[in-house]
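[step 3/7] fold_predict: job queued, chain A
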Amino acid sequence: MVVEFWGSMLIFALAPIIFFLQARSALLPWFGVAIGVFLSLQVSFYFCAFPAGLVLYPLLAMEFRPNPWARGAMVAGSLLLLGYAGSAVGVYRPFAILEIAVSDAGLRQACVAIPASIMLVYATLSVENPPSWLSRKAARFLGDLSFPLYLVHVPIICSLGSWVVLASGSTALAAAAAILGSVLTALPLMAFNNWWVQALGALFNKFRRSGPVAGRPRQRLLDHASCDCCPPVRIQDPIESRMPLSSVLAPSEISACSDPVASRR
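[step 4/7] structure written:
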């Protein structure tokens, strides 16, 4: 938890720098990530996973997207690599070279797990048309639950799970109690997290509408390029009119606005 806490603080400090560099040049973010990894090595090897994860940002900013076969190979290869536990046995025998350079088994495992994890996340996020079930209520519920569950599962395991295993002597019953207790404890936190994120978003929109942008004209004129006899079309600001984007933009424009790569072009 100490490594995760300070690693997260490192990401919060490094991410704006990477975003700034990406706006200047496509190559500069890679140097920024390399510097972050180098500085992390001075403290602990385990911190390298955090700045290394920022490689995903310049990767996803590139126009290149692997085809389904390449993504499938990346997913299979990353899952295979994530099974490496630091011992050069079986299919992991080629990693025996790591035993010469690194004596600690945990560090050897991290050497393989960090790039494998980045490859797995990239293969997942680079899907241009993700399956529709990922946007359904069940998938969104699991996504909302994941962070509160991450926060409470260790205290629940160490309290409720430990008490049940001492009282009953059954590890299966203790595991079931810990899982159920973690989910029930995470539900109120999930509701609070969703509430304050929405409140923060509403506050941000309020300041945005009252800021300098609000002084700009609320309407703009677009002339038809294809026909001189058609009158100009008046487009109303969707934020001001509370209208959905689908009612004021064409489908091609909506997809262009939602694609971060296309919006930068």
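[step 5/7] annotate
The longest strand covers residues 219-222.
Residues 171-210 form the longest helix (40 residues).
exit 0
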